[in-house]
Design goal:
Blueprint (H helix, E strand, L loop, with lengths): L31 H27 L6 H53 L18
Helix pairs in contact: 1-2
């Protein structure tokens, strides 16, 4: 949509956020795969920006020493921002993975206990058939 001056305007929906709709501030149920993919894309795009900056530098469009110093500062700022963003996302992912590790460990332990009480014993190394190794 455009306003009277011809600028593009983003119109937000006035529809209230319902339980089933996604929330832009963060969904606790966002598929982890999508988060990992987004982080990879973010890092790839930072890398591309750094390559583009290097290309501009190689084209010698910054003839003055003060300009080259700015390029060095820009590069450091981009690297710092990338590291900070990755760190923050990985901190969140670490907490999620840790919770899931504990949760699935408990599920596995319950399943093992249930199997034992039902008289089903999980195969151990000594009860599994040995395979021949070619040597």
């Amino acid at each position: 949509m455009q306003d009277q001056s011809g600028h593009v305007v983003v119109v937000k929906s006035k529809k209230p956020n319902t339980k089933g709709s996604s929330n832009r501030t963060g969904s606790k149920n966002a598929p982890k795969m999508l988060v990992y993919e987004a982080l990879a894309t973010l890092n790839r795009d930072f890398e591309q920006t750094l390559r583009d900056l290097n290309q501009l530098e190689e084209l010698c469009i910054f003839p003055h020493r003060w300009q080259r110093k700015f390029v060095k500062t820009w590069r450091a700022t981009l690297e710092e921002t990338r590291a900070w963003a990755s760190f923050e996302v990985l901190e969140v992912l670490h907490r999620i993975e840790e919770r899931e590790w504990v949760r699935f460990g408990r599920i596995r332990q319950r399943a093992e206990k249930q199997s034992e009480s039902d008289g089903i014993v999980a195969p151990s190394e000594s009860t599994q058939p040995k395979t021949r190794r070619s040597g």
